Amino acid sequence: MLIWIILIIVPMLFGLYAQMKIRSAYGKNVQIPSRGRIRGAEAAQAVMHSAGIHDVEIVEVPGELTDHYDPMNKRLALSHDNYHGTSLAALGVAAHEAGHAIQHKVGYAMMSVRQTLAPATQIAAGVANFVMIAGIFLISSSIGGTLLTFGAVALGVICLFQFITLPVEFDASRRAKAQLVQLGIVDRDEMPGVNETLNAAALTYVAAFVAALGSLLHILMLLSGRREE
Question: d(Cα 96, Cα 102) in Å, to the nearest integer?
Answer without folding.
Answer: 10
